[in-house]
C-alpha cells in the first residue's frame, strides 16, 4: 500500500455489462477540459498509458520485516520476569503486484483481481530468513486457547489435553521463513482435519495467512466520475461519491460483513448501516484521484487490514526529484476507543472494544485474537506498553507517511507504511502452558512497506506531463499564433504586390487627350462637361 503503487495486470481489458445497481441519485460532475493527448495518458481506460502502468506497476516496493525475538523464555514461563523481546531485522521481500482480469463495466467502473507475490531480497536483509532463527510465541496454541475463553469447561479441558498430547509448546524456535511463511504444526494439522471449514490450511505461517487475505479479491473501482452513483449519499460526502478510482465494491459488497454490514436480498442497504462498515469511498492504494485537495483525508483499504485506514493531510512538500507532494500520515487516534474516535464505533468484538492504540481484527482471521498497532506500541495506552520489555516507540522512526503527487494522483517514492501485528491473549483457562500469557498483548513483528525509488518510466511521465507538456503546449500556441499572423501578413502583402503590377490591357497612359464623344455618353446635358477628356 505504502508506496502505494500505481500500476499492474495480466491480459487485455474486456468490456462487459455492469451488474445491476440499485437506483440512486447520481451526482453531477463538472467535466474536465483536458487535451486529448493528456487524457490518453492519465485516464484509466483500455489501451491508455495509465492502464498499462496500473496493470503492472513498475514500482520497486520492498516489504521489510522486524521480528520480536523472545530473550527470556524460561524465566517468563516460570513467572519470574516480564516478557523480554528484542527486535531482529530487517528481512526484506520485494512485492510484485498484478491487477488481473480487468473488465470495464457500463456503469463507469472497472472490476479486477489483484495478485501479490513476494520474493526474498537478501541484499536488503540482515541475513538469510531460511537460516536465521528466532524464539517466538506459538500462535496456533495461544490463539485457539484464547478463542475458547468463553467456551465450556469441557471444551477448554479437551483442547488442553489434545495440545498436551501433541506436545505443543507455548514458545517455539523457528527459522524466519518458517515463522512467516509456514511450518508444519501438529495442532494445526489436527484442526484442519476435523474442522476444515474453520481452519482451512494445513501449515501455518503468520504472514502467509495475512497475505492470503489480500489475494484473490474481486475489486470494483470508479473510473468515470460522470457515471457515479451511490446509495449511501447520507453517509458519503459528495466528493467521496464521485472521486475517481475509489472503491465501489469489494468482493461484490460495498461494506464489510465482518463488522456488521448487511444488505437486503435485492442488494439494498439497511437504515442501520454505518460509515465505518463501508469500504465504498476508500482507495486500494495503487492510484488516487487527480487534482487532490489540501487538508483532505484519504482512506485506504486492504483486506489484510480488515478495516479502512484513514490518513490525514499534514503538509505540502517536494520530493528529492522536485515533484510537488501532498504528505499524509496515520491519525494519532487511528486505533482509539469509540469514545475518543467515533469512526471506530464498528470495531469492537463481542461487545469488547480494544485498548487505546490497538485494533482487534479477529473477525477477519478465523476469530483468532490478532491485534494491530503501530510499531513498538506507538500511541498505545502506557499500561499496555509497560507489560513487555523491549518496546521503544519513536514517532519519527515508527510513523507512516504516504506521499502523493496531487495533480495526477500518482504515488511517489519515500512513502512508507508501518504496522505491527500482535496477539491479544485473553484469560486462558485450564492450560498451565498458556497461563503466563494471560491478558497480554504480545508483539509478534512489524512490517514496513516502502517505495525506495521512483521508477524511471514514472519519473519520465511525471516530468513530461507536469513540466514539459504545459510549456510545450503554451509555446506551441504562441508559435501557431505567430505562424497564423505571418501567413495573414504574407497574404496581404502578396495581394498588394500583384494588384499594383497587373493593370487592365485596354488602358494605357498617354500625353494626348480628346473630348469625349457626346454621342456615346447618355448623360443628361445639364451634367455634361465639354472639357472632360479621357485617354485615347
Mean pLDDT: 80
Main sheet attributes: strand count, strand direction, barrel closure: 11 strands, mixed
Question: In terms of structural class, how would the helical and strand content be classed?
Answer: alpha+beta
- How widely separated are the two ends? 96 Å
* Morphology: elongated
Helix content: 10-25%
- Proportion of residues in extended strands: 15-25%
Task: Let me know the number of strands.
Answer: 20
> Low-confidence runs (pLDDT<50, min 5 residues)?
1-33
Radius of gyration: 35 Å
Q: Helix tally?
A: 12
Q: Any overview of this molecule?
A:
GO terms for molecular function: scavenger receptor activity. It comes from Aromia moschata. The chain crosses the membrane at residues 454-472, 478-498. InterPro entries: CD36_fam (IPR002159). By secondary structure, the chain is an alpha+beta fold. The chain has twelve helices and 20 strands. It has helices spanning 36-42, 49-55, 73-77, 139-147, 153-165, 176-181, 186-194, 206-212, 238-242, 382-385, 395-398, 456-501, and strands at residues 14-16, 61-70, 83-105, 109-121, 133-137, 171-175, 219-222, 247-250, 297-300, 309-318, 324-330, 359-360, 370-373, 388-389, 401-405, 410-411, 416-424, 441-451, 513-515, 533-535. The strands form four sheets. Strands 1, 2, 3, 4, 7, 8, 12, 13, 14, 17 and 18 form an eleven-stranded mixed sheet that branches. A hairpin with a 4-residue loop joins strand 15 and strand 16 (410-411).
Amino acid at each position: 500500500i505504502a508506496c502505494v503503487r500505481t500500476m499492474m495486470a495480466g491480459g487485455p481489458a474486456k468490456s462487459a455489462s455492469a451488474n445491476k445497481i440499485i437506483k440512486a441519485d447520481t451526482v453531477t460532475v463538472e467535466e474536465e477540459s483536458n487535451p486529448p493527448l493528456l487524457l490518453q495518458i492519465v485516464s484509466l481506460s483500455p489501451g491508455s498509458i495509465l492502464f498499462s502502468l496500473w496493470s503492472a506497476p513498475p514500482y520497486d516496493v520492498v516489504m521489510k520485516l522486524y521480528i520480536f525475538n523472545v530473550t527470556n523464555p524460561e524465566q517468563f514461563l516460570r513467572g519470574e520476569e516480564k516478557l523480554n523481546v528484542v527486535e531482529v531485522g530487517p528481512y526484506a521481500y520485494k512485492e510484485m503486484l498484478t491487477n488481473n482480469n480487468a473488465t470495464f463495466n457500463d456503469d463507469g467502473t472497472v472490476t479486477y483481481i489483484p495478485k501479490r507475490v513476494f520474493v526474498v531480497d537478501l541484499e536488503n536483509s540482515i541475513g538469510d530468513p531460511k537460516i536465521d532463527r528466532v524464539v517466538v510465541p506459538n500462535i496456533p496454541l495461544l490463539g485457539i486457547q484464547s478463542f475458547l475463553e468463553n467456551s465450556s469447561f469441557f471444551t477448554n479441558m479437551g483442547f488442553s489435553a489434545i495440545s498436551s498430547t501433541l506436545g505443543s509448546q507455548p514458545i517455539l524456535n523457528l527459522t524466519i521463513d518458517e515463522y512467516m511463511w509456514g511450518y508444519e504444526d501438529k495442532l494445526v494439522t489436527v484442526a484442519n482435519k476435523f474442522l476444515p471449514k474453520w481452519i482451512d490450511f494445513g501449515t501455518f505461517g503468520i504472514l502467509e495467512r495475512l497475505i492470503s487475505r489480500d489475494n484473490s479479491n474481486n475489486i470494483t473501482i470508479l473510473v468515470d466520475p460522470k457515471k457515479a452513483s451511490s446509495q449511501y449519499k447520507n453517509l458519503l460526502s459528495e466528493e467521496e461519491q464521485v472521486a475517481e478510482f475509489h472503491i465501489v465494491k469489494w468482493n461484490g459488497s460495498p461494506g464489510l460483513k465482518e463488522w456488521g454490514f448487511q444488505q437486503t436480498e435485492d442488494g439494498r442497504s439497511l437504515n442501520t448501516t454505518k460509515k465505518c462498515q463501508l469500504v465504498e469511498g476508500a482507495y486500494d492504494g495503487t492510484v488516487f484521484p487527480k487534482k487532490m485537495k489540501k487538508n483532505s483525508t484519504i482512506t485506504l483499504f486492504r483486506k489484510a487490514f480488515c478495516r479502512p485506514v484513514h490518513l490525514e493531510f499534514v503538509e505540502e512538500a517536494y520530493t528529492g526529484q522536485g515533484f510537488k507532494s501532498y504528505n499524509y500520515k496515520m491519525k494519532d487516534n487511528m486505533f482509539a476507543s469509540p469514545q475518543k474516535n467515533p469512526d471506530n464505533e464498528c470495531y469492537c468484538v463481542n461487545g469488547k472494544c480494544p485498548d487505546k492504540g490497538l485494533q482487534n481484527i479477529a473477525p477477519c482471521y478465523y476469530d483468532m485474537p490478532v491485534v494491530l498497532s503501530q510499531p513498538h506500541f506507538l500511541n498505545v495506552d502506557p499500561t499496555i506498553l509497560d507489560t513487555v520489555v523491549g518496546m521503544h516507540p519513536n514517532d519519527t522512526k515508527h510513523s507512516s507517511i504516504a506521499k502523493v503527487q496531487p495533480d495526477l494522483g500518482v504515488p511517489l517514492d519515500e512513502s512508507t507504511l508501518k504496522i505491527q501485528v500482535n496477539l491479544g491473549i485473553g484469560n486462558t483457562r485450564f492450560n498451565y502452558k498458556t497461563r503466563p500469557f494471560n491478558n497480554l498483548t504480545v508483539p509478534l513483528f512489524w512490517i514496513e512497506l516502502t517505495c525506495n525509488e521512483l521508477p524511471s518510466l514514472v519519473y519520465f511521465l511525471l516530468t513530461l506531463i507536469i513540466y514539459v507538456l504545459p510549456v510545450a503546449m503554451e509555446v506551441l500556441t504562441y508559435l501557431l499564433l505567430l505562424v497564423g499572423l505571418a501567413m495573414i501578413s504574407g497574404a496581404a502583402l502578396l495581394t498588394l504586390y500583384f494588384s499594383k503590377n497587373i493593370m487592365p490591357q485596354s488602358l494605357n497612359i498617354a500625353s494626348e487627350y480628346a473630348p469625349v464623344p457626346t454621342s456615346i455618353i447618355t448623360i443628361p446635358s445639364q451634367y455634361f462637361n465639354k472639357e472632360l477628356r479621357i485617354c485615347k
